[in-house]
C-alpha cells in the first residue's frame, strides 16, 4: 500500500490540540505588526528565538509592503492619473509582497513548524488580525481526545 | 452554471483558492440541494452586502441614492454636451468638450470604483479566535456583578487609544476601525457611510472617493462656468436672458442643478482636503477624538506632522489588499463552522442578508434600487431557481479573471422590476435637499438615510458637510 504523499499519511493522524493566537501590535500605529511575545503554550515545542525570528521577519515583510517611499508615491500618482484603472490590470506592490509572505510561511512551516507538530496560518487568511499557530497532538503520546 | 471545482482540505497545506478537482460529496451538512458545487466565500458573507459578478463587485445592501447620483451626473453632462458644447465650440474653442469629457470620465470611473470597491471590511473572527479573546477577557475581568468592560487600551506613538470590542464581529477593533450598522461590517479606517455612493468609505476606497469629489467639483464648476458663458453669449446684443433660455432650454436645467450642487461639493472637497492633510477621518473629526475637547493634551497619533507626507500616505500609499477574499472557495470544514448563514442559503428568500449572484452591470444599477428581498436567491447551479440568475456564463472558468465583462453575464429580467422601489422616492425631494445630508457617518438606524435629509435641507445652504445631521458612531 503506497501512500501517495507524505502529507496524506499525516492527515490521518494528528488531531488539533489547541490554537494560539498572536495578536497585532499597535504601538506604532495602524501598520501591520504582530507581537513578538513568546506564547507560553509553545514553550514545550519551540525555541523562543526561533519564534521571535519568524514573527520579526513577518513584521519586516509587512513593513516592506506598506512602506511609503518614492516608488509607492510614483505608483500612487500614476494610478490617480489613470483614474485608478490600472489597479484592474496590474498587480499592486502589496499583493506582490503578500505572495512573498505566503511563500515564506510555507517554507517556515515545512522546515521548522511541521516537524514540531505546529502549523502557522498566513495572517491574510485571518484578515491580518492574528497569526494563528495550530498545535497538533503529539503523535508519540498516542491518539488524543 | 459554473464549472465545479473543489479542493480537498489538507492540514499540511494552507488552503488556497486555486481549485483542484478531486470530487467530494456532501461537504455541507445543512445543505439540502446539490452539494457538488463548492461555495465561494462571498456567498456566505455575513455582512449586509451584495455581490455581483461572482464576487468582484461589492455594494452595501441599500444602494442609497447611488442611482440618483449617477442619474444627475449623466443628465447634467448629457445636457451639457448636447446643448452647450456645439455653441461654445463654434464661438470659443473646441477644447471645451475635451476638458468636459475628460472630467466626466474621471467622475464616472471614480464614482463606480468608490461604490464597488471593498472599503476595507474586516472579516469576522473565527470561532476559535473569538473563544480565545473571551478567555483573555474573562481572565483579566473581575468577578463582581458587572460584566467586565470590553475595552483595551494601547499606546500608539505615546498616545493612549482605547480599542473597543465589537460584539458582532467578536474581536477587538483595530485602531481607526469602526462598525458600520448599515453594512453590518467593521471597516478599517472608517470614514463614513456615504449614501450618495451607496457604500462605506474606508481605507481601501478613500482615495477613489476623494478623487471623485474633487473631480466632481471641477466638473460641476466647469459646467456651471460654461453654461453661464453660453447664456451670456446668447443674450448678447440686447436679446435678453429669456431669449437665450428659450433657445437652449437644457442649459436652464444644468444651471439649476449646478448652482445648487457646486457649493456643497466644493465645501465637501475642501473639508476632505483638510482631513487628508491632517490624516483624520470624518468619524474622528466629528467625535473630536483628537481635538482635546476633554481638556487633556491629545494629538492625532497617526499624523506624520507634515502635510505633504500625510497627503501621500492617505492618497498614494500602496493599495491594501481586500481582506475578505470574496472569490475564494470555502474549504469543506469551514463551511460547517461558519454556522447558520451557510445552512440557510438554500432558502435565501427569507434571509435579510442577501448575496446576489451574477447579474449584468447594467442590471446592477437597476437592481441596486430593488428592495433587498426581491433580488435574492443566489442559485448558482440550482436548477429550479435558475430564473433570477442569468444563464450567462456557462463557459466561464471560475478562475479569477481581471476583466469584468466575462464574469457579468447578460442582465436579466430580474432587473426589470426595479422601477418601484423605496430609494426612488428620493427623486421627489427637492433639489435643495440634495446637498443637505451629504454624508451621514453610520447613523444608528437601519433605514435608507435619504428620508432624513429634508429636515436639514433648508438649514444647511452654506457648508453642508458640517451642518448635516451626523449621528455619532458607537
From TrEMBL, chain A:
It holds the Pfam family Erf4. The keyword Lipoprotein applies. It is found in: Golgi apparatus membrane. InterPro entries: Golgin_A_7/ERF4, Ras_palmitoyltransferase. GO terms for cellular component: Golgi membrane; Golgi stack; palmitoyltransferase complex. It comes from the Eukaryota. May be involved in protein transport from Golgi to cell surface. The ZDHHC9-GOLGA7 complex is a palmitoyltransferase specific for HRAS and NRAS. Belongs to the ERF4 family. This is Golgin subfamily A member 7. It comes from Amphiprion percula.
UniProtKB/TrEMBL annotation, chain B:
InterPro entries: Palmitoyltrfase_DHHC (IPR001594), PFA4/ZDH16/20/ERF2-like (IPR039859). GO terms for cellular component: endoplasmic reticulum; Golgi apparatus; membrane. Its main location: membrane. Residues 14-24 have a biased composition (Pro residues). It comes from the Eukaryota. Keywords: Acyltransferase, Membrane, Transferase, Transmembrane, Transmembrane helix. PROSITE patterns: DHHC. Residues 392-404 have a biased composition (Polar residues). Its EC number is 2.3.1.225. Residues 424-437 have a biased composition (Basic residues). GO terms for biological process: protein targeting to membrane. GO terms for molecular function: protein-cysteine S-palmitoyltransferase activity. The DHHC domain is required for palmitoyltransferase activity. PANTHER family: PALMITOYLTRANSFERASE ZDHHC18-B, ZINC FINGER DHHC DOMAIN CONTAINING PROTEIN. This is Palmitoyltransferase. It comes from Amphiprion percula (Orange clownfish).
Amino acid at each position: 500500500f503506497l501512500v501517495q504523499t507524505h502529507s496524506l499519511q499525516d492527515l490521518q493522524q494528528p488531531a488539533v490540540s489547541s490554537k494560539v493566537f498572536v495578536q497585532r501590535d499597535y504601538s506604532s500605529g495602524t501598520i501591520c505588526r504582530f507581537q513578538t511575545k513568546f506564547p507560553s503554550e509553545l514553550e514545550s515545542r519551540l525555541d523562543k528565538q526561533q519564534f521571535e525570528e519568524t514573527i520579526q521577519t513577518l513584521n519586516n515583510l509587512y513593513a516592506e509592503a506598506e512602506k511609503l517611499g518614492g516608488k509607492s508615491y510614483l505608483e500612487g500618482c500614476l494610478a490617480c492619473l489613470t483614474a485608478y484603472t490600472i489597479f484592474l490590470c496590474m498587480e499592486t506592490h502589496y499583493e506582490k509582497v503578500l505572495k512573498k509572505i505566503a511563500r515564506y510561511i510555507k517554507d517556515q512551516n515545512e522546515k521548522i513548524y511541521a516537524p514540531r507538530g505546529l502549523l502557522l496560518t498566513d495572517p491574510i487568511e485571518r484578515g491580518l488580525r492574528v497569526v494563528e499557530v495550530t498545535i497538533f497532538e503529539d503523535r508519540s503520546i498516542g491518539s488524543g481526545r | 452554471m459554473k464549472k465545479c471545482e473543489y479542493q480537498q482540505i489538507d492540514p499540511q497545506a494552507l488552503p488556497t483558492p486555486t481549485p483542484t478537482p478531486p470530487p467530494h460529496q456532501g461537504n455541507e451538512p445543512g445543505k439540502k440541494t446539490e452539494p457538488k458545487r463548492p461555495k465561494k466565500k462571498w456567498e456566505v458573507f455575513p455582512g449586509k452586502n451584495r455581490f455581483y459578478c461572482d464576487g468582484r463587485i461589492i455594494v452595501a445592501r441599500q444602494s442609497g441614492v447611488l442611482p440618483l447620483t449617477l442619474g444627475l451626473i449623466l443628465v447634467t453632462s448629457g445636457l451639457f454636451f448636447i446643448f452647450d458644447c456645439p455653441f461654445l465650440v463654434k464661438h470659443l474653442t473646441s477644447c471645451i468638450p475635451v476638458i468636459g469629457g475628460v472630467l466626466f470620465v474621471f467622475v464616472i470611473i471614480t464614482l463606480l470604483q468608490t461604490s464597488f470597491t471593498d472599503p476595507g471590511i474586516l472579516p469576522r473572527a473565527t470561532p476559535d479566535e473569538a473563544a480565545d479573546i473571551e478567555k483573555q477577557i474573562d481572565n483579566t475581568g473581575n468577578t463582581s456583578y458587572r460584566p467586565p468592560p470590553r475595552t483595551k487600551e494601547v499606546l500608539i506613538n505615546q498616545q493612549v487609544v482605547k480599542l473597543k470590542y465589537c460584539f458582532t464581529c467578536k474581536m477587538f477593533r483595530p485602531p481607526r476601525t469602526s462598525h458600520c450598522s448599515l453594512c453590518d461590517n467593521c471597516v478599517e479606517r472608517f470614514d463614513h457611510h456615504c449614501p450618495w455612493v451607496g457604500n462605506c468609505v474606508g481605507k481601501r476606497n478613500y482615495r477613489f472617493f476623494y478623487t471623485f469629489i474633487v473631480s466632481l467639483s471641477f466638473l460641476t464648476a466647469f459646467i456651471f462656468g460654461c453654461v453661464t458663458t453660453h447664456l451670456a453669449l446668447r443674450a448678447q446684443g440686447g436679446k435678453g436672458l429669456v431669449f437665450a433660455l428659450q433657445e437652449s432650454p437644457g442649459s436652464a436645467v444644468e444651471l439649476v442643478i449646478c448652482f445648487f450642487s457646486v457649493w456643497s461639493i466644493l465645501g465637501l472637497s475642501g473639508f476632505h482636503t483638510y482631513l487628508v492633510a491632517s490624516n483624520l477621518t470624518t468619524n474622528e473629526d466629528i467625535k473630536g477624538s483628537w481635538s482635546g475637547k476633554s481638556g487633556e493634551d491629545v494629538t492625532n497619533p497617526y499624523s506624520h506632522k507634515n502635510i505633504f507626507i500625510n497627503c501621500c500616505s492617505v492618497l498614494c500609499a500602496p493599495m491594501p489588499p481586500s481582506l475578505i477574499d470574496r472569490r475564494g472557495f470555502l474549504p469543506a470544514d469551514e463551511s460547517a463552522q461558519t454556522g447558520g448563514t451557510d445552512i440557510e442559503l438554500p432558502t435565501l428568500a427569507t434571509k435579510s442578508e442577501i448575496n446576489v449572484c451574477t447579474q449584468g452591470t447594467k442590471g446592477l444599477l437597476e437592481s441596486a434600487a430593488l428592495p433587498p428581498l426581491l433580488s435574492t436567491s443566489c442559485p448558482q447551479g440550482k436548477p429550479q431557481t435558475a430564473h433570477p440568475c442569468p444563464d450567462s456564463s456557462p463557459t466561464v472558468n471560475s478562475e479569477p479573471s481581471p476583466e469584468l465583462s466575462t464574469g457579468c453575464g447578460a442582465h436579466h429580467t430580474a432587473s426589470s422590476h426595479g422601477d418601484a422601489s423605496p430609494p426612488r422616492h428620493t427623486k421627489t425631494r427637492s433639489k435643495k435637499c440634495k446637498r443637505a445630508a451629504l454624508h451621514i457617518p453610520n447613523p444608528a438606524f437601519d433605514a435608507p438615510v435619504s428620508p432624513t435629509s429634508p429636515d436639514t435641507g433648508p438649514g444647511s445652504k452654506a457648508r453642508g458637510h458640517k451642518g448635516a445631521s451626523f449621528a455619532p458612531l458607537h
